[in-house]
Automatic annotation (TrEMBL):
UniProt organism field: Lacihabitans lacunae
Protein name: Tetratricopeptide repeat protein
Stored InterPro entries: TPR-like_helical_dom_sf (IPR011990), TPR_rpt (IPR019734)
Amino acid sequence: MRVQILTAIYILFLAVGAFGQELDLADAYFKQGEYEKAAEYYKKLSGNKDQARLIHDNYLSTLYKLKDYDTAYKYVKALIKNNPNGIVYKADLIQIIDMSGKTAEAELEYNKLIEESAKIDAYVYELQNFFYKANKIDLAIKLLLTSREKSNNPTKFDTQLARWYLFVGRKDKMLEEVFGYGQRSKNFSYVQATIQDNIREEAEIEMLEAMLYAKIQENPNETFFNEILIWHFTQKQDFARAFIQARAIDKRNQLEGMKVFELAGMAYTSKDFKNASRMYQYVMDEYPGGDFYIAARRWLIQSKEELIKNTFPIDKADIKDLLSQYNKLISELGIGPNTMEALRNMALLHAFYLDEHDKAIEILETAIKAAKVNTKFRDQCKLDLGDIYILKNEPWESTLLYMQVEKSQKEDNLGEIAKLKNARLQYYTGQFELSKDILDILKKATTREIANDALQLSLLIQDNTGLDTSEVAMSEFAKVDLLIFQNKYDESIKSLEVLAKKYETHSLADEILWLKANTLLKVNRVEESVADLEQILKLYQFDILADDALFLLAKIKEENQDDKPKAMELYRQLLKDYPGSIYGAQSRIRFRELRGDFVN
């Protein structure tokens, strides 16, 4: 008995070994494109029913290459006979009918197979994969929709359908499935990621917005689609329209202004101070007894402050009015955690806009005392003191303060800000090598804004100093930059006019024009600013400052010269000529607003 068993095992071992050798040969011929030789071996191996799966895909591909559809048909028919529930084999057989030219017959058979498979999920998954490999995505969609219908489950296979609709370019249908799944599972990240990855063209964005508005109308008691629309608008920096949706969520969920307050903070961080002001004012007006009233009041003054500081020329009467509002806030609330930032802002207004440096220092020292154990706020005030000492032409005091904060906050973003301020101070005073050493470290800063600022200043120094160029031009340029930091605009403009002529062919020429254009705008010499910007676009349209110049020129046409048609033309030009510009989102919003697309 033992001898018989061993003999059987030995024979089986030889058979398996022979099968393996022939399979290797068949696969080798297949890979080399010698399909006739491969077909001979695969045909011989196909007689082994238990090993059919090992040769199936390659054997069929070989027969397709040889256009031997009769052999393929007989081979698959035999497989189906042995595996009557083999859905994929049935699909293979229909594909053979299709490839042999009987398209109408194949279409009928595919429909029958879909009807048969749609009732059993395991069959659906198998057939779906077959259709994907065969590049028959329309049939995969039909299969899933049929299965959905038979199950009486309107959300079945929604994520799979979303993927297939994307494959065939039906992004409207894709979004319908994505929205359905997102709403049901409250999976915001899935919906957001799908939109971010796949909705980019203007027509697609308009379609997305229309669909979201329709969903909001259809589901008035559901905030999911409002939240997605808010997220979408904030991605585009379109806070005006995000505000409308945030108001709706606040009212519906009785949030007492929390949603609008949160959005206002995002608008402020994105430097959209106009809409931040509107939102903070709304919170104050609608919820005067709410938890966010005091904070909204303080941030409203700060938003107005930023608006005034970024609207040129700056009116000192507006600055004094802001100081009056801050004083009123402090007198009502007292000096404490809710008013420390107000004190700090007052100090900076006195220092930078009224030239009252000693008054500013006195207020900051009061704020530092009020901070007590709040070391971060105290160190922020120290950075402000450093800036004020630069205004007073006492750079050594500034350096000491910056270094103190850098040491105290080395694990915090504030430490990196201190480093950047110190690097800029070294640049102002002509210590370019030291400045660049600090900036090169900051290129890897944790905050993207700091890293970008460091990179820009580092490149400016690198491109205009070193072995191949004299540092004289850079030193003169840095001194003018310092004058602008000190708000000595008239003096800086005169110096820049001299530099523009003196260094007309220098690598700094476009930087000089850019700095001059911005400074002229600050003193309301708009026409001269426009001339410099147009010069940049004429002479340096392929350089790094071109899109900056074009966006600023468009803003001037819109805001200062009230030339809306020209502004629209320039925004459109920026979108066309500089598609990767950081000003793209704002240009698109401003263009559409000027065109009259939005009615709030």
